[in-house]
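Working notes for the structural subgroup meeting. M.R. asked for a predicted model of this chain before we commit to crystallization trials. I am recording the input and output together here so anyone reviewing the notebook later can reproduce the run.

Input as submitted:
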Amino acid sequence: MKRLVWMGIGVAIGVIAFRKVTEAQSTLGPEGLNRAVGRLADGVYDFADAVRSGMRERETDLRTALGVDPADAARR
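Returned structure, recorded in C-alpha cell form:
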C-alpha cells in the first residue's frame, strides 16, 4: 500500500513537471515571443491613446478657463 501511495505521488509530480515544461516551451518559443511582443505593442498603443485623449480633454479645460474659443484653435 505504501508503494502505491509513493507511486501516485511520483506520477502526479511527473505530470505537473511535464505541464510546466510544456508551458515554458510555448512561452519561450517564437510563437510565445510573438504573442508577448504583440501584447506589449497593444499596451503601448492603448497607453498612448489614453494620454492623447487626456491631453485633448485638459487642453479644452484650459481653453475654457482662459476664455479662448476652442473652435479658433481648430482653424489654425
